[in-house]
Design a protein that fits this description.
359 residues, Helix Hairpins, Heat Shock Protein 90, 3 domains, 5-stranded mixed β-sheet, two-stranded antiparallel ribbon
Length: 359
């Protein structure tokens, strides 16, 4: 990273020196042309040095005025071409500000191949592409979230009306009440995920850092989800060793619950959810694996972006927020997260500094 930064710094200095050289060249050309112009006048007899027509002071004034006129003309012509890329950038930025995220930069001209100009264009285009994709995902999220939010509300209202009418057996009443409870919890989870993402996105400093038993935390998180994995008759494979970690215990709990929830959701009935923990090179590695439908290769780089859902059919529960929350929390801890799919097994691996040295 440091080597790359030094190279970029050298490239930017070279571009600055190039522009400085152009300005110096303009000044030299201006002075030369002004001097030639005055000498031409003297040679033609229009001006005579040392006479009343042109004393040394007047000669100097004529040279200065001539230099200014010629210099201003040259600068205007030069800047007219040099400002074109700046105008294109300003126009592109105005388009972005107005909501047109399809705009892209493609400079032409003498400096278009300079590494700094290429870097600027690529950075701008990447920013525009990310904004365009985020806007598309946000729009999809609003549509999907509105639908998913409306479904449990309609369900709750419907069963509440049926219960209000009465004339139901005790068994049927309990069944409807269970559905209302389940749908209410579903609404709560959806709202909590969105609020968590908003809160975590605005957080830049990790607070409440302490050392805690990671293995115990993982067992507790799986216990919270017992109702889900028992319904699918899943087996759990957990490590027997005890591992300790320095971090924000409450935030990391969200990481494991989201990862376990995904693993359970996309596991085949009767399958196994495996959790492996290891320590290497000052890092704690936690791998969560499940056997089931794999994540498409083209989706693996997008699943950690907010609002993105790998299941485009939206047949399964979810709103594309959980893994975005996970990624942000892991980043806050100075760690990394990746996903690998092989032979029907999907594995999410989280690597975190064991002693919190990167916090």
């Amino acid at each position: 990273m440091k080597i790359k930064f030094k190279e970029q710094h050298k490239e930017r200095i070279s571009l600055l020196l190039t522009f400085s050289g152009i300005v110096l060249l303009i000044l030299l050309i201006t002075t030369l042309l002004a001097g030639l112009f005055v000498l031409l006048l003297i040679n033609q007899g229009a001006l005579v040095l040392g006479t009343a027509e042109l004393k040394p002071g007047r000669f100097l004034l004529t040279l200065i005025v001539g230099s200014i006129v010629i210099g201003a003309t040259l600068v205007f012509i030069t800047l007219k071409f040099q400002l074109k890329p700046i105008n294109r950038v300003l126009n592109a930025m105005n388009q972005l500000a107005s909501g047109d995220y399809s705009v892209r930069l493609g400079h032409k001209g003498v400096f278009s191949k300079h590494p700094t100009v290429v870097e600027f264009s690529n950075s701008f285009n990447k920013m525009a592409s990310e904004l365009e994709q985020t806007e598309m995902l946000r729009s999809d999220f609003i549509n999907n979230f509105s639908h998913e939010f409306k479904t449990p509300i309609v369900s709750i209202a419907g069963f509440a009306k049926v219960l209000k009418r009465g004339n139901l057996s005790e068994e049927r009443k309990n069944e409807y009440l269970d559905i209302i409870e389940e749908e209410s919890l579903r609404l709560s989870r959806m709202a909590t995920n969105v609020m968590n993402l908003t809160k975590i996105e605005n957080q830049t400093i990790l607070t409440e850092v302490e050392k805690f038993n990671l293995s115990e935390q993982i067992r507790t998180c799986l216990l919270v989800l017992e109702n889900k994995w028992s319904k699918k008759h899943l087996e759990l494979a957990l490590p027997s060793e005890e591992y300790y970690l320095v971090g924000n215990e409450e935030l990391l709990k969200q990481v494991w619950i989201n990862l376990f929830d995904n693993a359970i959701k996309f596991s085949d009935d009767g399958g196994t959810v495996e959790v492996r923990i290891g320590s290497e090179g000052g890092e704690i590695n936690v791998a969560v694996s499940n056997h089931g439908e794999e994540i498409a290769r083209e989706a693996r780089d997008k699943i950690f972006k907010k609002f993105y859902q790998a299941d485009e059919s939206h047949a399964s529960e979810g709103n594309g927020v959980g893994l975005a929350v996970v990624k942000k929390i892991v980043d806050l801890h100075g760690g990394t997260i990746g996903v690998e799919c092989r032979d029907g097994t999907t594995t999410f691996t989280v690597s975190l500094p064991e002693d919190g040295s990167d916090l």
